[in-house]
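Task card 7
Instruction: Convert sequence to structure tokens.
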Amino acid sequence: MDKCDADARLLSVEADAAVREVAFAVQSISVSPTFPNSERTYRLDLCTLEGAAYCIELTSEGFRVVDGDGRYFETIYSLLGATSPRYRLMFGGALASKLAELAQRQEREAGDEDSGEEAMRH
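Output:
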């Protein structure tokens, strides 16, 4: 596999991951069927929770809004954080839920360990 093929594969993987990972916090997101993708550029169609539609370009420089201010973002998360207030709320809520789940799991595991230690003492 040459460098162009490897770069194209990396962009493809990154685009697919972006679609999967933020779908919960946008109205819609997909790899654009309108624009041909290449080894240097992928396009995503995005509609935010506010109803704003964007064409997002993914290159080796990062993510940017086509016809936007030209600013590149390292991740799709940072791009959405800059363009969608409701995304920030959804992301914060999802993060808080995951942290609460983790805390509950740790409490259960600690309780299970305490039960096991107490049983060994008797």
